[in-house]
UniProtKB/TrEMBL annotation:
<comment type="similarity">
    <text>Belongs to the UPF0065 (bug) family.</text>
</comment>
<feature type="signal peptide">
    <location>
        <begin position="1"/>
        <end position="21"/>
    </location>
</feature>
<dbReference type="InterPro" id="IPR005064">
    <property type="entry name" value="BUG"/>
</dbReference>
<protein>
    <submittedName>
        <fullName>Tricarboxylic transport TctC</fullName>
    </submittedName>
</protein>
<keyword id="KW-0732">Signal</keyword>
<dbReference type="InterPro" id="IPR042100">
    <property type="entry name" value="Bug_dom1"/>
</dbReference>
<dbReference type="Pfam" id="PF03401">
    <property type="entry name" value="TctC"/>
</dbReference>
């Protein structure tokens, strides 16, 4: 009888322990009885690159608006995890499977890098939350270069593509390379013969100015200050229409120069694998509120970004479609896996 009583007490203790554990787990992951979710600890956004670039700037501007506009009450920190074209940061977030408090900012390299065989992680390995902006490419040359528009440049490249060197910060087969190739192909250039060099040390602009390279393929915002200073000129940008803002409005699009192609540098946020659906729904709503806010509209204008909000499901479909297009182009260049 005594033994039976001890077993009964032990069983009751285990039931209470498990129940308490479940309650504390629910509190930690932010879930509630009605199936909704809210963060209950600091949120970490990973920028999978160093400070100052597009990922870092986007992450920090988003965190700033979330906090200053009280869209999200929990504190939000941004950490930089540079390396592998983004792969180091992706691996870090992948290690937080199921977490509702970790995410990273991404753009087309999340498609390019895995397709090039340089990362084991692709967009399918994460939870798409929301896309927030569209950025665009700019093709710049030195202020005293002989070309004044894209057609003049591409006419010379049609005659001898390898005589003109294009520099970008990304590796061959990644964004700065492919954004140039996509426009050049639409203009009739043999893209398999384009001479592209990768500037991994951030000296592409220096190379352009000292004459080591001829064309700088980069982001629109990276060109503004140098255009103001009169050291470079932008031959074209990859947006559908001219961008708004001082200096930006002077940049002609490829389309208005008769080249029927665009390139969108989408930028959005992803959670770890198997992020809870309730957490995804929470963040979708918050990112939509951010996208619609005047504060973030001002930031878009400041950096020359366009509004491009997509929720999780739409984002996932968009990424699948983009991946197919990129795979076709990489195969043509002999860079596909």
């Amino acid at each position: 009888m005594k033994k039976f009583l001890l077993l009964t007490v032990f069983a009751l203790f285990m039931v209470i322990t498990v129940a308490c554990s479940s309650d504390s787990s629910g509190e930690a992951d932010g879930s509630s009885d009605d199936g909704s979710w809210e963060p209950e600890e600091p949120i970490e956004i990973v920028a999978p690159a160093g400070a100052g670039g597009g990922w870092d700037t986007t992450a920090r501007m988003v965190a700033k608006v979330f906090n200053e506009e009280s869209i999200i009450e929990e504190s939000i920190g941004v950490v930089n995890k540079a390396g592998g074209g983004g792969a180091v940061g992706w691996a870090y977030v992948a290690g937080h499977e199921g977490s509702g408090h970790n995410m990273f900012v991404a753009s087309p390299p999340l498609l390019f890098i895995p397709l090039n065989g340089q990362s084991e992680y692709g967009h399918e390995d994460f939870t798409p939350i929301a896309n927030v902006i569209a950025d665009y490419a700019a093709f710049a040359v030195a202020a005293d270069a002989k070309w004044d528009n894209l057609n003049e440049l591409f006419d010379d490249m049609k005659e001898d593509p390898s005589s003109i060197t294009v520099v970008g910060t990304s590796s061959p087969g990644s964004m700065d390379h492919i954004q140039f190739v996509k426009i050049a192909k639409a203009a009739g250039v043999d893209v398999t013969k384009i001479k592209y060099v990768s500037d991994q040390d951030g000296v592409g602009l220096t190379q352009l100015l000292n004459g080591s390279v001829d064309v700088f393929s980069t982001g629109v915002s990276e060109t503004v200050e140098q255009v103001k200073a009169g050291t470079i000129k932008v031959l074209g940008v990859t947006s559908e229409e001219r961008l708004e803002g001082e200096i930006l409005e002077d940049f002609p699009t490829a389309k208005e120069q008769g080249i029927d192609e665009t390139f969108v540098n989408w930028r959005g946020f992803f959670g770890p694998p198997n992020m809870d659906e309730a957490a995804v729904a929470y963040y979708e709503e918050k990112f939509k509120e951010l996208s619609d806010s005047e504060a973030f509209a001002d930031i878009r204008k400041q950096f020359g970004w366009d509004e491009m909000y997509m929720g999780s499901e739409e984002y996932s479909q968009f990424l699948g479609d983009e991946k197919e297009k990129i795979q076709t182009l990489l195969d043509e260049l002999g860079l596909g896996q």
